[in-house]
Amino acid sequence: MKHQPPPGDGTLEQAEQLRPWIEGETGMDFSGSRLTRLQDGLRKVSLLEALKLDPKALESAPFLERLTAQLTVGESFFFRNASHFAALRDHVGPDIFAHNQHRREVRLWSAGCAGGEEPYSLAILMDQLLGPDSGWNVSVLATDLNPAFLDKARRGVYRPWSFRLTDIQQDTRYFERQGNDYILNPRVRDCVRFAYLNLVKDVYPSASTGTLGLDLILFRNVSIYLKPAVTQVILQRMCGALRPGGWLLLGETEVNLAPSEGFVVRRMEQATLYQKISEGAPHFDALPALPAPVLAEVRYQQSPGAFATDLPNWVPLPETRAAGSGPSPVHAGAAGKPGPPDLWGQIEEPAARQHFAKAEVLIDGIASEQQRGELRLRYAKLLLEMGESARARGMVEQSLREAPMTVEAQLLHASFCEESGDFAEAEKAWRRALYLDRSCAIAHFHLALLQRNKDLRLAQRSLRIVFQLCDKQDPHALVEHADGVCYGRLREMAIAVFEAEQESESA
Ligand SMILES: C[S@@+](CC[C@H](N)C(=O)[O-])C[C@H]1O[C@@H](n2cnc3c(N)ncnc32)[C@H](O)[C@@H]1O
């Protein structure tokens, strides 16, 4: 029988009071009978007494972390839902390989990855399909908001229960048995990059989180815990994170929360998937129009309760900016029509048709080195949105040779290096960005993330600089070059990292 908290222990009142705040922080739904789960979580965190005395304790990152650890369900196993993996094997994988043949690269995202079973299943599937020495570069981004799940996932060690509906653990190409544990082969393990990302509060699509130009997103068994309006916004953002023609797979019971726009439905014998509409592709199987998600409604549901923090509940999506001025200006050339296409329009048009040589000849022809570098950077961002990340990386490197004093190019270069595991070069690039702009808060933050693996004191120093920079700003103001992260959120993330480091130092 399900455990019920004893009546009158104060948790019901606490849960009711906290509900708007925690729903805003996680997107989870604690309406109606679901409030009991929040009550249970609060009791387990056993901070109630402290909270009664000091409501401000709620604003602390450790409290949120402990509470979300209780509220999130990390249930997962390898090759969960065999029919999904059959559809990926028979249809989606081959489609991605055919599309990416020229660049031999696959980029996947498991959003809400729990203990890693799902992203590792994807990595194994790709290995089975491509073969071990294919020369293809497979990268799987795996994100979650529960740091304990991420730690477990990084270890890549599993018990038999994680294989309850598969016998993949018997395959010695992928697992080595040690007693009761199955250890994942490092070759597969290293294809997967785990990162903290709260789907409700963090920024995507964005080059800095590796969430641009993806071939496939798995978003399964996460939205069942979220508010439907929140899920719709997440799906919109995921659409932006996919390349044209990229794929989205939802959980079996979640297809009723299908994305409202931007996708065509692909019904296969084994599963239904959503494919991002490619520009100019026939919309023969278009989804029926649903009302567009209303952010204001989400905000209303998350409106501050007694303990609410002073932070925005939703970080705005990156805006389309004017040429050369912002993080994501790739469509700016289309604005301002009709009239003869400007140079950017002339570059964008062949690039969209994958006639890259034609586009690049136009860039190469620009006389001023500085302007050439700047336009090349803009072109690199267009390539990234299209999923051409290897080409984009080459363009950023070239742009840095032409216009080396561009902070944004240094930041992009650093993100590329991190994604490919070249942390030494990434660190140099973050530092070069800081050399150009000492107040670049996002570069200090990323530098701290790298430094904490080597030298905790240096990492803490960088984080203190982040705090100082954030404290000078309105928490709602957008951080420069950070694709829509606001100073309040950056500060929160920095605090979480800082406190986690202090905890591990004192442990
Ligand atoms: C039931 S597991 C699903 C795991 C895997 N996708 C699967 O289908 O087997 C749900 C995961 O979503 C994560 N999650 C819930 N809300 C989230 C949010 N707002 N941002 C990121 N992850 C979230 C939880 O921490 C948990 O690990």
TrEMBL record:
Uppermost EC category: transferase
This protein's UniProt keywords: Methyltransferase, S-adenosyl-L-methionine, Transferase
SUPFAM superfamilies in the record: S-adenosyl-L-methionine-dependent methyltransferases (SSF53335), TPR-like (SSF48452)
Family matches, as Gene3D superfamilies: Tetratricopeptide repeat domain (1.25.40.10), Vaccinia Virus protein VP39 (3.40.50.150)
GO biological process, one term: methylation
GO molecular function: protein-glutamate O-methyltransferase activity
CheR-type methyltransferase domain location: 33-279
EC number of the protein: 2.1.1.80
Region ranges (Disordered): 320-342
Keyword check for Cell membrane: no
Organism domain of life: Bacteria
Identification of the protein by name: Chemotaxis protein methyltransferase Cher2
Organism annotation: Lignipirellula cremea
